[in-house]
Design a protein that fits this description.
Length: 424
């Protein structure tokens, strides 16, 4: 039976999700309201102190996020990603089928490094240019790019904000993510691209002579692009090796951010202004809300309930984690879902000392649920906005037709993969 403190903290949590999901306020403001109320009522009921509230924030996650954001904001400003995207698109030689699959894979690959918001803006600009020159229907390309960008980065520690949160909570390293999920993600890229192609095949258009354009045309300084390429190579190398030096990924990310600023030489002030501070404040505030639930014993009660429902069966627990986190991520920010589920799974060590299958299920669930509908994530909203700039109004139902279909395909395969990969 929950006491009054637990009931109040649960109410604050639900209020925060309601404010965020209905867009009554921005994500960061919703979380700040929730954090303020958690601290206020925590003090009133003597459940926590201000020092404890601050202690709930995992600053390792914050530092990792800032380091990655700065590093790739610098690289994006160099123009490297746009050059690579346009080269891949030019490879199509005017064939809409090749163009479609090129765009799908480039979208997913770019999102391995860039935030989803930056990736969709970059790919939308490239896709819009090609669609105009080739006189193609832009809808298949923009919708598919959004879905593939949401999928990209599922198997890397830095591929999404939710992955960073899960990685720091679970202790899974960069190599662990690749070990457990890389094969799954590669197959998902192929399955999702084929599904989208079959759906949009009648709308892709006919083969036409390829346009003449120079991917380097808008690049003023090629040396800056080469420097950015060096920083990416260094970044990936350090993330593959950091465990050998007994340092955390947040230290590597911050070191790479400093190196990127020094080597590439872009305006640091502009870079810092472009960092997604809203996400950072949202995560920091939500840590306090979740910390209140943990202190009140709510999360322990939930973890025990999951154990009872699953009867400590690996398959049931993994399936429950995968599908429920994906379903919630359709309606609520997957960051909030990751922050909520991570401590619950951390308390379930009674089921099995090796919880990698559950952490993997959570990674897949929070990532795959983010593109089912136009309001499931920022990347979907931006894709629809980009289409409006092309004078194309895409309905909720039309986007959801592609989003729900691919999400079901992805989750169905993810279920099979978890069973085979972890022998459940």
């Amino acid at each position: 039976m929950l006491d009054i403190t637990s009931i109040v903290f649960v109410g604050i949590y639900l209020l925060t999700l309601l404010l965020a999901s209905t867009e009554t306020t921005s994500l960061s403001v919703a979380a700040l309201i929730g954090a303020f109320l958690t601290v206020l009522f925590g003090l009133i009921y003597g459940a926590l102190t201000p020092e404890e509230a601050i202690g709930f924030i995992d600053f390792r996650v914050i530092l990792l996020l800032v380091g990655v954001m700065v590093t790739f904001e610098v690289i994006e400003r160099s123009g490297l990603f746009r050059v690579l995207a346009l080269y891949a698109i030019r490879y199509s030689k005017g064939d809409p089928k090749v163009l479609f699959f090129s765009l799908c894979f480039v979208s997913a690959a770019v999102s391995l490094f860039l935030s989803d918001v930056t990736a969709i803006l970059l790919i939308a600009a490239a896709a819009g240019t090609i669609a105009k020159i080739m006189d193609y229907d832009p809808v298949p390309y923009f919708v598919s790019a959004a879905i593939m960008i949401n999928l990209g980065g599922t198997s890397t520690l830095i591929g999404s904000t939710s992955n960073m949160i899960i990685g720091m909570a679970s202790g899974l390293s960069f190599l662990d993510f690749l070990n457990f999920l890389a094969v799954c993600e590669i197959i998902l890229w192929v399955l999702t691209s084929i599904t989208l192609y079959l759906l949009y095949k009648p709308r892709l258009g006919e083969k036409k002579p390829p346009p003449e354009y120079d991917p380097w045309g808008e690049i003023e300084d090629r040396k800056t692009v080469y420097k950015a390429g060096f920083v990416i190579a260094l970044f990936l190398t350090l993330f593959l090796l950091y465990e050998r030096w007994n340092v955390g990924p947040e230290i590597v990310a911050l070191a790479c951010a400093v190196i990127a600023l020094v080597v590439v030489g872009v305006d640091a002030g502009l870079v810092f202004r472009q960092i997604d501070w809203e996400t950072i404040f949202f995560i920091g505030s939500f840590f306090i809300i979740i910390g209140g639930l943990e202190k009140a014993g709510v999360l322990k009660a939930v973890s025990e309930a999951v154990l009872n429902v699953s009867h400590e069966n690996q398959f049931v627990a993994a399936l429950l984690t995968l599908w429920s986190s994906a379903f919630l991520s359709v309606f609520v920010s997957n960051i909030a879902v990751a922050l909520t589920y991570a401590p619950i799974i951390g308390m379930m060590h009674g089921m099995d000392s090796n919880m990698n299958y559950l952490w993997s299920a959570l990674v897949l669930g929070t990532n795959l649920g983010g593109a089912a509908t136009p309001v499931s994530g920022a990347v979907c909203i931006l894709a629809i906005g980009a289409l409006k700039e092309e004078n194309v109004n895409l309905s909720f139902a039309e986007f959801s037709k592609a989003g729900v279909l691919t999400t079901i395909v992805q989750l169905a395969f993810a279920t099979i993969y978890l069973i085979l990969r972890f022998g459940m």
